[in-house]
Amino acid sequence: MLTGDIPPNQTIYIKNLNEKVKKEELKRSLYALFSQYGRILDIVALKTTKLRGQAWVVFSEVTAASNAVRQMQNFPFYDKPMRIQYAKTKSDCIARAEGTYDKKKKQEEKAERKRRVEEAQQNATPNGPRAESNGGPAASSRPGRPSGQEAVTDPNNILFIQNLPYETTSMMLDVLFKQYPGFREVRMIEAKPGIAFVEFEDDIQSSVAMQALQGFKITPQNPMAISYAKK
Q1: pLDDT tens, 124-144?
Q2: What is the reported pTM?
Q3: Per-residue buried b or exposed e for 95-126, using 16+ beta carbons within 10 Å of the residue's own CB
């Protein structure tokens, strides 16, 4: 472990990231990967020379950050193993990047942001651990099949993914689905953004991934709708 003497806290520090990945894609991929552990309040990734290849992920709960540190240590992310530890503070990393920093103001903003998130969560109606851990209302976290698409009930080794944000890349889905045994590849269709096919070695392994990621949100507005692909 790389945590050293830093006590567990809500923010994790990640280094050894692939420096060739664009900042916005990196942030979206980090969100997709880490939001399975809990609600994410913020992701900081800066492309300055000094901070390239590094990122900070701020969770709403310390337990979520702890699970992420433990389970994602050395996970191959864009072909490089991530090195993860607890951050000293998110405030310090931003101060180093920007040179000036109003710590008291930032803490007040963070507290206000957390309060708004908690209010939004209280107004929502959670429905099981997946809806809560991925930070959204249950009504959208387990969607039905989109209209016009006939659900395929016979299991097979290829999954059909719908309701993806248009900016989704095959690498983002690769990072998400490769956590599950038997993963083979992701296939996207350029002419039809918003959908993809994910292939596993057999239908048992594809079923495990489908159950785990059904309704998973790559962005807060896009819960994935997963079914078996038509043969």
Answers
A1: 544 434 433 444 433 333 333
A2: 0.52
A3: eeeeeeeeeeeeeeebeeeeeeeeeeeeebee
